[in-house]
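Morning F.,

Quick status update on the modeling queue. The single chain you submitted on Monday has been processed. Sequence for confirmation:
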Amino acid sequence: MADVVPTKHEIILQTELAEYVRRTTKSAELHAATQASVPGGIASDYQVMDPYPFYVGNSNASSIVDVDGNNLIDFHGGFGVTLFGYKHPYLIEAANKVFAEQGSLISLPTPYLLDASKILVERFSLPFWRFFNSGTEATLDAIRLARARYTRKYVIKIESGYHGHHDAVWVSVHAGAREVGSENPSVPFCSGIPKEVSDLTLIAEFNNLDSVKKYLAKYPEQIAAVIVEPILLNCSMIKPKDGFLQQLIELCRAEKVAVIFDLVKINTAIHMKHIIKYWDNENCGPDLYTLGKGLSGAMCPVGAIGMTAEFAALIPSKVQLSGTYCGNSFALGMVTAVQNYATESRQDTLEMLSKFMHDRVKATIDKHKLPAIVEYVGNKGCITFFKKGHELPCVRHYQ
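Structure tokens below.
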């Protein structure tokens, strides 16, 4: 039998892997030791790397140094959270100011609650806000608010959309084609989610209004909300086609279904002018926004829900939104500082740098005739590869 000859890309991957192992011996040792007390040796399953993750020793500006002394330029940015780099002098000064004033957790309102809410009202054009400790908490309670307002149980979620890791949305995050094509495409992402719970989440297709209409017809007056990322970012980058979001809002408004736009990944990172161009925000916007990640510039965990007056009226008489750390003074002080710093001109600079990288990556793809496309919006971008020989599609949905 003839030997199997590795392809060019397999040789490149093997070479790079060997170099990675050679340069990260201390990370390998740390990972092995950490697994003795931490499942998987990582704090979050999104930190999984093969054969093991590298461990960070310190960071500064746009670079990190791992425990083996390798100095690395960071294009990851903590899943897009560290918008202004590590140890930014402005953020350090703001953090010191808040801590000097307020100290540690108080669990009572402070003036920062008004400051943070006012700036979000101005920036996102929804009149009421509540604060949480993560984007996951924000989407969880946004869905609770929608179910409470309409006393309905079903929620429509977009296939492959990521909205945190609570049971209502930890469904069909990376479902395969066979699963999606089945009678019930609501596929739990992992064990521990009862079928009775996942069946309450209905999976629609991005940029396909008919897939939403199908559920509205099948479950009349039983659907509480549609939750969607205006720009789908969990499976490469998929932009909404012209009219999709606008028509989705109008359809849901007519059917008394709440529209939740999940901006956890893109708030602060992308100026709203790059987002609201996809719908008529002045006359017909979403009912709720959810925010997180970059909202505090990576200085602390934080989440938020923006809502119309109709949803705000439910709190606290009908819906309880609580948490020991919710709206703590440090988090809200950092939200205020970061949002004041993230001016339109600074966000435009980020967008300019993103375009600079996009144009050069695209030129490289074109030069070498690679089976790939590159997209960007604001300072978010993504390269998507396809099987060689396939015609490169205009990506409209996950499949």
